[in-house]
Amino acid sequence: MAGSTTAERGERQQESSGPPPVRRLRVRRLRVIIILAVAFVLVSAGSVWLLYGSQWLRVERVSVSGTDVLTQKQVREAAAVPVGSPLISVDTDAIEARLRRKLPRIDAVDVTRSWPHGIGLKVTERTPVLLVQKGGKFVEVDDEGVRFATVSQAPKGVPALELTLTQPGSRAASLRRFGESRLVREAVRVAGDIPAAVARATRSVKVRSYDDISLELNDGRTVAWGGAEAGAAKARTLIALMKAAPDARHFDVSAPTAPVSSGS
Fold first, then answer.
1. Per-residue pLDDT of the chain (264 residues; tens, 9 = 90+)
2. Which of 40, 97, 138, 178 has the most CB atoms in a 10 Å sphere around its CB?
3. 172 alpha carbon, distance to own chain's centre
4. Omega before 86 cis (within 30°)?
């Protein structure tokens, strides 16, 4: 029998030196997958241990900023941050809720993690725009009409709110129609629109009815403001009127397009 030709021998050599069998490729791929899976598990386990089990990333300090009337100690105690706990597990929403519940003076609070060992509490306190006298103390009311604190001494530069709604007629009708809370909010709107220079000298904001609100200044001068609408226009008119009649004792800006001043 004739031997193999040169061409046949070349074909056999090419087949023997070709790519590895499919089975060998599958084994190699499986090994790579197993190695990657093990590496992933080890990295994940290490991360979990680092965040939850180690002593490296735990709460060690609580910093407080933004306080004015409140003290940092009061804020820390109300926040009740679990010092010593893993930083990642601290419930920042629960801390915020506790602060708002225990300290109504707080208007807003930002609770942040400060890696690797801190919790930051940045608070914004409510600012009183009116005071409601209650017995020998004063209830502070902010620009949203929220009564947030009772203090024994009236803060300087904050006018008192006087509700004189017990008289018959339209005043009593105003109270029945709008309710005391609504009338307080109207007074708050007026207090927010009073020009800064006048606000510092305002002793009280008096509410007789929904559309009969007036100001009494420290020197005895009075301002008839009317309702809470058109507050910006009334503020501009009042400043101009006071400059035009510096000796007047009474100013009426209830109709800002037709203001009146009187007395001397």
1. 455 555 455 555 544 554 557 777 777 776 777 777 666 665 555 444 444 545 557 889 999 999 999 999 999 999 999 998 888 889 999 999 999 999 999 999 999 999 888 999 999 999 999 999 888 899 999 988 899 999 999 998 899 999 876 555 555 555 556 677 888 899 999 999 999 899 999 999 999 988 999 999 999 999 999 999 999 999 999 999 999 999 999 999 999 999 999 986
2. 138
3. 37
4. no
Distance CA(260)–CA(136), nearest Å, equals: 37
Cβ neighbours of residue 22 closer than 8 Å, sequence gap 6 or more: none
Strand-pair partners of 209? 212
Q: Which residues of 171-204 are buried (b: 16+ CB within 10 A; e: fewer)?
A: beebbeebeeeebbbbbbbbbbbbbeebbeebeb
Q: Where in the chain is the domain with CATH 3.40.50?
A: 130-262
Q: What is the CATH number of domain 130-262?
A: 3.40.50
Token couple for 189: 């709107």
